[in-house]
Design a protein that fits this description.
Layout: H1 6-16, E1 25-27, E2 30-33, E3 65-73, E4 85-89, E5 107-111, E6 117-123, E7 129-130, E8 133-134, E9 139-144, E10 151-157, E11 178-179, E12 190-193, E13 196-197
């Protein structure tokens, strides 16, 4: 699917999107907030059956390398979930998605370890036009686990000038998913941490 069809496909995705939701928590009558990760649109570029792997890089791949890591938790906000399936996909530095090749470039999936942890090595995505405006750089997530609601979401990055005009990234419920990019490590990798909190069915 060509990215120019993004607008129409995104409208259809938005119609099917699960309503943003959260669970209000109180202790002794005082509001304590919530932790469930909010949803975002699926978008038109999801491909099922992405290969099980943690390293999405390959020789000749352009872009700043990033380590994308985090943990998946139950709705109590503290109990890690092992064997949760985490799928990610994103565009390359030119703003193009690999929608057809057998290599599934910039696409991967894996299951969390005993401590609910996951880690991917990939690149910082580029940007592409959504109508007359650019979508901010983002990475898509789909997370599934038995007895939990499926999570469809996206992460964005602090300092991206396109966030404020993007209807999804600028939504107040996306605030927890606009993430800090830490400086390069000794291997030249940037690091992004994204912990995920699933809702129970």
């Amino acid at each position: 699917m060509h990215r120019k069809k993004f607008i129409l496909s995104s409208v259809m995705s938005a119609i099917a999107l699960t309503t943003f939701g959260s669970v209000i928590r109180e202790s002794n009558g005082e509001f304590k907030g919530d932790c469930e990760t909010t949803n975002d649109i699926l978008g038109p570029f999801y491909r099922p059956n992405a290969p099980i792997r943690s390293d999405l890089t390959y020789d000749g791949l352009k872009g700043n390398r990033i380590i994308l890591k985090g943990s998946v938790f139950k709705s109590d906000c503290v109990t890690p979930l092992k064997n949760a399936l985490v799928e990610i996909w994103h565009c390359n530095t030119e703003g193009e998605y690999d929608n057809e090749s057998k290599d599934f470039r910039q696409r991967a999936s894996l299951k969390t370890n005993e401590n609910g942890e996951y880690v991917f090595k990939t690149i910082l995505p580029g940007k592409y036009l959504n109508g007359e405006l650019y979508r901010p750089s983002h990475i898509h997530y789909r997370v599934t686990k038995s007895n939990c609601k499926e999570l469809i979401s996206q992460i964005y990055f602090k300092g991206d000038p396109h966030i404020t005009k993007d209807p999804w990234a600028s939504d107040k419920r996306a605030k927890q998913r606009v993430l800090q990019i830490t400086p390069e490590d000794i291997n030249g990798n940037l690091t992004i941490n994204f912990d995920i909190y699933l809702s129970e069915k």
